[in-house]
Amino acid sequence: MASELDQILISYDQPDFRENLRERRKKSLLEKYQPFGTPESNQNLNLVRQIVWDVAQRGDKAVAEYTKKYDDVDLKPEEFLVSQAALEEAHKKINNDLLKSICQAIENVKKYQKEILIDKEKTPFGIKYTPIKRVGICVPGASAPLPSTVIMCAVPAQVAGVEEIVAVSPPKCNDSIHPDILAVCHELKIDKVYRIGGAQAVAALAWGTETINKVDKIVGPGNWWVQMAKREAFGYVGVDSVAGPSEVLIIANEKANPAWVAADMLSQVEHTPGLAWLLTNSKKFAAQVLDAINEQIKQLLRPDEITKSLKEYSAVVIEKNMEKLIENANDFAAEHLEIQCGDESRKIADQIENAGAIFIGDYSPVAVGDYWAGPSHTLPTGTSAKFFSALSANDFIKSTSIIEYSKEKLAESADDIIRLAEAEGLDAHARSVQIRQQK
Amino acid sequence: MASELDQILISYDQPDFRENLRERRKKSLLEKYQPFGTPESNQNLNLVRQIVWDVAQRGDKAVAEYTKKYDDVDLKPEEFLVSQAALEEAHKKINNDLLKSICQAIENVKKYQKEILIDKEKTPFGIKYTPIKRVGICVPGASAPLPSTVIMCAVPAQVAGVEEIVAVSPPKCNDSIHPDILAVCHELKIDKVYRIGGAQAVAALAWGTETINKVDKIVGPGNWWVQMAKREAFGYVGVDSVAGPSEVLIIANEKANPAWVAADMLSQVEHTPGLAWLLTNSKKFAAQVLDAINEQIKQLLRPDEITKSLKEYSAVVIEKNMEKLIENANDFAAEHLEIQCGDESRKIADQIENAGAIFIGDYSPVAVGDYWAGPSHTLPTGTSAKFFSALSANDFIKSTSIIEYSKEKLAESADDIIRLAEAEGLDAHARSVQIRQQK
Are A413 and B260 an interchain contact pair (Cβ–Cβ within 8 Å)? Predict the structure, then answer.
C-alpha cells in the first residue's frame, strides 16, 4: 500500500478532518471554478461580464470576434449554424453500433423522464403547468466530445413538451463540432446547432442576435466561462445551475468489492479535475481500495493527471460509526453518491438528504447514470445539491397560479383583504376590493 | 375622456404597436431595474459585485459598514439580530383585527400550498424529494412595510418542511424593522430576524458571517440592489428569481365593469413603478375605463406618481380579434393576468401559456392574490413567466435521482455503456462497468 496516494487517507478522528475535506474541495473549486477570491479570478469574472454585455448589445459581430479571439476560428455569422447537410452526413457516418447504443439510451431517458414528469392532468385546481417554449443546450467540446450531454439535456426537455431546442458547442473539431455530437442532434431532430462556445455563446442564447433567436432557458455543462456567463444571464433567461468539477462520494463497508470501489473513484477523477471521496468504517477496506487504485491507475490513459486529482482533491475517510459517515455525507451534498454496503445500502440511502443522484448497491457505478439509466447526468455539484435538483423534465415546465373568486367569496373576505392592504399603505389595492362591494 | 392619459391608448392596428408596448416595459426596467446598458447602471452593477465580494470576505464588519453607509444606521454586529423581546412586543401590540386577518391569510396560504405540494409518498421509484434546510427571506422595508411578504415567502417554505427560516429587512423604521413585520415573524415562529438590507444582507445570507449562518436558498422581493445581489449569489445558494417592477395585464371585453378594471389598473401602478396594460376588443369599453381612471385617480393618496406610471409605462390596446389579444398576452408573459370577459373568461385562461398568476372573472382582483387566496404573491415579472414559476412550496424541495441496478441488469447493459464511454474517451468510466463483468 506504500505509495504517494497515502496522503489522501484521512481519519475521521483527526480533529481537523472536516476542515481538511473542505479544503480539498475548495482547492479544486478555487483552481478551476471559484468565481472570485484571487485577483486573477476577479479580473476574469469582470471579463465574462464584458463579453456578455458586448454580445447583448452588438450581437453577431461580437460573437464572431470572440470566436476568433478565444477559439481561433474565423466564422461569419451565417456560418455559426451547422448546415443540415453536415448534420445528415454525421448521422450517416456514425458507427452503427454506437448509434444503436445512443438510441437505446434515448429510449431509457425518455421512459424515466415520462415517469417522473409532474402529471398536468392530475394537478389540483389553482395551479397550471405549461412547458417552456425555447431551450438552449450548452454542449462541451473541449477535451472529449460528449454526445451524452445532448441526450441528457434535450430528452428531458422534449418529454416536457419544449417546442424548440437549440444547441451550442465550441468549434474544436476541424473548426466545427465533433460529428458524434452532430449525429445525436440529428437523431433527436435538433436542427439548430451553432458552432460557438464560451461566454459568447451563452450571451447569444440569452439575448438573441441577428441570426440566433433568444431562448427562454439555458441548460448544460461547460467550463468556467460558460458557467459564469450562465450566472450573468440568470433572470433574463432561466438557468439550470452553476456547475463546478464533477465529484463522487462513496459510502462503503467491507461487504463491498475494493477493486470496484477503486474503479469508481478513478472514473470520477478521470474528469480532471474530478473529485472522489470514500467514507468507510473499515481501515482494512480503505487500505484495499488504495492498493486497487495503485494497481488500476497504471492501466488508464492519463495516469498522471488522475494521480494529481486524487492527491490534491480526493480523500479516504475512516470512521467506525456509520451514523457519523452519513451525517458527513449529508453535509457534503455530493453530486454523485454511491452506497456499497451490502443489504444495508437502501437503508442508508433513505437517510441521505443531500445528493444529486444516489447509486445504490454494488452494480450501480456512476457510469450507469452517466449514460444509461434514465435520470439526467446533469447534476448539482459543490454542495449545491443542498438547493438544486438533478436536471429533469420538471425543469422544463413552469407553473402559473390560478385564482378565481365568486361574488360571494369575495364579499366574505373583503374586510380582511382591505384591512391588510391598508396596513401596508396600499389604498388602491384596498379600493379594488371595496369597489366590488358597492351597490 | 379628454385627458393627458389619452396617450396610453394604443390601437392594435398601428404597425408599431408591439414595439410601443415593449418600449414602455423596457423604459420601466431601464429606469429602475435594467442591470446594464447605461454607464450609470454598469457602474452600479459593478458596485453590487464589490459589496457582495466584500461581505463574503470580511463578514460582519463589512455588513456594518454598508449599513452605516447606505441605511445611515450604526449597528454593531450583535445588534443585527432583532431581540426576542422586540418580536414579542410587536406581536403583543399589533392591532387585534389586523392580527386576525393575518392569521386567516396564513391559514389560506397553508391550505393552498399543501394542496399543490408534490406528494413525496406518491413519487415513482427513481426520484426522491427532500426539503431545503435553511432559507433566507428578503422583506422590503422602504416605502411601506410589507408584512404580507413574510407570509407569502415563509408559509410555502414551512409547508415544504424547511427547518430554519431567517428574515432580513432594512432598518428603515426607527433604526429597526416595522413592528407589523416583526409581529408576523413572531406569529410564524421565525425568531431570526436581522435588521439589515440591500446587497449586503443578501451577501450575508449567501456566504454567512460571524453572526449570520449561511442559508441554502434566498427568496423574496426587494429593490434593484437586492435583486442584483441575488443574481451574484446564484449558484452559491438557490435564488427564486430576479424581480423587476410589478405589472398587470388585463384582458377584458364589454361584459366587464369598466370601473372595476380601472381600479385594478390603479392598484398595480400604485407600486410606482407599476405597470398596467389593458387589452380589449372594444373601443367603447377602453374609453369607459380611461374615464373611470380619471375619476378614481383623484381619490388616491399618491395621484401624481400614479399618473406618471400610467403615462410612461402603461397602455390600453384595442384590437377586435380576441385571438390576437391572447397571442399578445402570451408574448407579454405578465406577472399578473386578469381576465374579465364574462362566461368566456375560463376558456381564455385555458389558452394562456405564460403568466405568473391568472385571475379569472369579475371578482378576482389582483389584491385577492396579493393577500388572501393562497398562491404566493411572489411572482415572475418582466417576461420571466416564460421560464420562472410562481413561488410555491415546491420551490423549497429538491429532487435526488435514485439509480439501483442489479447484477443482471448491469450485465445486460454493459456493452452499450462501455461503448458510449469509450466513444467519449472516458476509459475509466468504461472500466468501472467492465470490472463488474469479470469472473
Answer: no
Average pLDDT, integer, range B109-116: 96
Domain end call among B239, B266, B293: B239
Q: What is the pTM (predicted TM-score) of this model?
A: 0.95
Residues of B numbered 366-395 whose beta carbons fall under 8 angstroms of chain A's beta carbons: which are they?
Answer: 366-376, 379, 384-390, 392, 394
Please write the tens of the pLDDT for every residue from A161-194: 999 999 999 998 888 899 999 999 999 999 999 9
Residues pairing with B397 in the sheet:
B131
pLDDT tens digits for range A410-436: 999 999 999 999 999 999 999 999 999
Number of helical H runs and strand E runs in chain A: 17, 13
Residue A64 forms part of a structural domain? yes
Interfacial A residues in 79-138 facing B (CB < 8 Å): 95, 97-98, 100-102, 104-105, 112, 115-116, 118, 123-124, 126-128, 130, 132-133
In a domain, A365, yes or no: yes
Provide, as residue numbers in chain A, all residues whose Cβ is less than 8 Å from the Cβ of B267: 426, 428-429, 431-432
Order of all β-strands in the sheet with B336-340? A127-131, A397-403, B357-360, B336-340, B246-252, B274-280, B315-318, B9-11
Average pLDDT in chain B: 92
Q: Chain B closest CA to A272's CA: distance in Å?
A: 11
Residue B429 in grid coordinates: 468510466
**What is the domain count for chain A?**
3
What digits encode the pLDDT tens for the residues B153-176?
999 999 999 999 999 999 988 888
On whether both A322 and A361 belong to a single domain, the answer is yes
Chain A within 8 Å of B144 (Cβ-Cβ)?
Answer: yes
CB distance B433–A367 less than 8 Å?
A: yes
Specify whether A233 is located in the same domain as A253.
no
Residue B53 lies in a domain: no
**What ipTM was reported for this prediction?**
0.95
CA distances from A381 to A28, A385, A387, A388, B241 (A): 12, 6, 10, 9, 20
Q: Which of A235, A399, A432, A203 is nearest to B381 (CA)?
A: A235
Share of chain A above pLDDT 70, in %: 95
Of the candidates B387, B414, B430, which is a domain's last residue? B387
User: Span B73-92, mean pLDDT?
Assistant: 97
Q: Are residues A248 and A231 in the same domain?
A: no
Say whether both A176 and A146 belong to one domain. yes
> Does the pLDDT at position B190 exceed 80?
yes
Residues A91 and A179 in one domain: yes
| HSE-up of residue B79 (Cα within 13 Å, Cβ side) | 13
Q: What is the mean pLDDT of residues B224-250?
A: 93
- DSSP bridge pairs for A336: A248, A357
Q: Which of A130, A148, A404 sits opposite B420 (nearest CB)?
A: A148
